Amino acid sequence: MEIANLPISPSQRAKLLSAGYTTLTSLSAVSPFQLARDLNIALQEASDILKVMPEFTRSESLHGGNAILKGAQTAWDMLSEEQMQKHITTGCENLDTILGGGIHCKEVTEVGGVPGIGKTQLGIQLAVNVQIPVEYGGLHGKAVYIDTEGSFMVERAHQIAEGCIMDMLDKFRHHQKVILACQEQMQPNSFLANIFYFRICSYTEQIAVINYLGKFLAEQKDVKIIIIDSVTFHFRQDFDDLARRTRVLSGMSLELMKLAKTYNLAVVLLNQVTTKFTEGSFQLTLALGDSWSHACTNRVILYWNGNDRHAYIDKSPSLRSASAPFSVTSKGIRNATSQCKRVRMM
Amino acid sequence: MIPVKPEKLFNLPTQKLTLGCPVLDRLVRGGLPVGSVTELAGESGAGKTQLCLQLLLAALRPPALGGLSAASLYIHSEFPFPLRRLLCLLPSSAPSSAAALNPLDHVFVRPAHSPDDLFSLLAAADALIARPPSALPVRLLVVDSIAALFRSEFDNTPADLKRRSSLFFKIAAKLKEQARRFGAVVVVTNQVVDVVGVSESDGSSSSAIRVGNYGSLWSSGRRVCPALGLSWANCVNTRIFLSRSDEIVRSERALEFGESDDRDDRTVVRTRRKMEVVFAPHLPEASCEFVIVREGVFGVETQRPQN
């Protein structure tokens, strides 16, 4: 394991290397004081570097084993842990299938697509579905919804919650015991009460909220999903210095990744699409640039295929690339109904 | 210090501003929501400005009648402000709240000449909205039209397009902030551009980027899409499309709509107008026909099945 892979600034990395710290193992036994002296940096900075280490190595499933690095885990442990995990259903079985059962906890999933394709709908749907009681096969968690665009509509959330409840009751209609046990939870208003909604109006607020979330989640252990709709909007204005934007964004994604791991929750980032000018032509791509595409574990693209909505796994370490149709109905995200006519009001 | 606190969804404002016609209101489930940006797109003569004027008067109505009991700010960039048309709509508008004895006292009008002008105007509008000169709060903001400002100023080069979209996001962020802070309804109008070089069956080919269900947007027999491209589409919460098509009908029935060119009872040219929800976080894709008459813009309930 190399120092070069550590998520720290290039100058810090250069200092580490020139001071002779070339492997992670060499860093594992060092104290912040010693490191600060060797690198000739502030104590705070040194301890920040060391803080990055345990998380980083844990996510890398280091072969070194527990003895060498605190917080390391074997791949076997991780596998059994993952098999215990429940996933958050999207409401559309086909979509769940290509996602490997739904949205995974401890992972950052990015969802992109053109306006009107259903990103916000999926966001609201997940904020509702994460609350499905354990008895109904859900996670019974709460949701944090960070709205940067003002697209979250309470009436729509209410509608989707109603749709979710209706479908659940229908699915479990033969299990009277379950229905009786969860009567109180299965009300649209209690679903709405468990969505923590943040409306933010600038990128500084966005960063501030994300930094504050660590503290907030320590108190609200039930939160199982964080949705940011959209992660992009405030980063597409006023950033003449793109290098600075990249730094701010990668800091944000690191923080989100950390929250996902620490609190065992799913992070879903909704992203816009933009046109990119390459080799003399305009092409469609997700916003925020190339370096941002490293920020998330999975990347799902929503697109139009004729008159149907489709989802496509664009990037994932563990899922194979596949696509599935879905539809946005009055109840929320559901399987595509190509046979039926699309629901039209009026 | 906690910068932003989570909010309970029950406390969020859910008020809506009526479009001034029950049929149209049904299409948008009660009206335009406060706190978000609604775009009205359509070719010239589709009825965008007509609807905006109607909204100015609707905002003055008391909440019981679907209004906001509020004054409005109308920023226009296209032609001189259509004052006579507004006067013409006055008698038919529902009684406004008691504070507004003279409705026109509560409509603030200001031209904008360039995108930068618009941005500084919006920044200055904060003061106006926070301390309204009239007795009513300002809770309706209309920009008519955003496209006119942007379509002349920029070249079709990557650098200029980038500058343009950055300005889009800046203006949109400002509008959304005001919508949120003052519980205001924000309406912007947009023009359309022709869609060329895309075969009809394949709306999602790589050269054309489909936004919403615009594969099926037609106006005056031409395939069109809202102007200003993809980045602007990212900036609005709701997009409503207004279209028109002239058709020749051989019937006396059409006369009752009062838009005929020919009163000979033989051939009559009638303008069919349609309002269409392209995308919205809270609405399904849907459409409704409407007419523009002396008294304003009104929806028509059709028996014809929707296709």
From TrEMBL, chain A:
Gene Ontology CC terms, in alphabetical order: Rad51B-Rad51C-Rad51D-XRCC2 complex; Rad51C-XRCC3 complex; replication fork
Matching SUPFAM superfamilies: P-loop containing nucleoside triphosphate hydrolases
Domain of life from the UniProt record: Eukaryota
The keyword DNA-binding is assigned to this record: yes
Subcellular location: Nucleus
Molecular function GO terms recorded: ATP binding; ATP-dependent DNA damage sensor activity; crossover junction DNA endonuclease activity; four-way junction DNA binding
Keyword set includes DNA repair: yes
Keywords: ATP-binding, DNA damage, DNA recombination, DNA repair, DNA-binding, Nucleotide-binding, Nucleus
GO BP: meiotic DNA recombinase assembly; reciprocal meiotic recombination
Domain named RecA family profile: residues: 84-273
Family to which the UniProt record says this protein belongs: Belongs to the RecA family. RAD51 subfamily.
Functional summary from the UniProt entry: Involved in the homologous recombination repair (HRR) pathway of double-stranded DNA breaks arising during DNA replication or induced by DNA-damaging agents.
PANTHER family per the UniProt record, alphabetical: DNA REPAIR PROTEIN RAD51 HOMOLOG 3 (PTHR46239:SF1), DNA REPAIR PROTEIN RAD51 HOMOLOG 3 RAD51C (PTHR46239)
Protein name in the entry: DNA repair protein RAD51 homolog 3
Organism: Phoenix dactylifera
From TrEMBL, chain B:
GO process annotations (BP): double-strand break repair via synthesis-dependent strand annealing; resolution of mitotic recombination intermediates; t-circle formation; telomere maintenance via recombination
Residues spanning the signal sequence: none
Keyword Nucleotide-binding on entry: yes
Pfam families: Rad51 (PF08423)
GO cellular component, one term: Rad51C-XRCC3 complex
InterPro entries attached to this UniProt entry: DNA_recomb/repair_RecA-like, P-loop_NTPase, Rad51_C, RecA_ATP-bd
Gene Ontology terms for molecular function: ATP binding; ATP-dependent DNA damage sensor activity; four-way junction DNA binding
Name of the protein this chain belongs to: DNA repair protein XRCC3 homolog
Record organism: Phoenix dactylifera
Taxonomy of the source species: Eukaryota, Viridiplantae, Streptophyta, Embryophyta, Tracheophyta
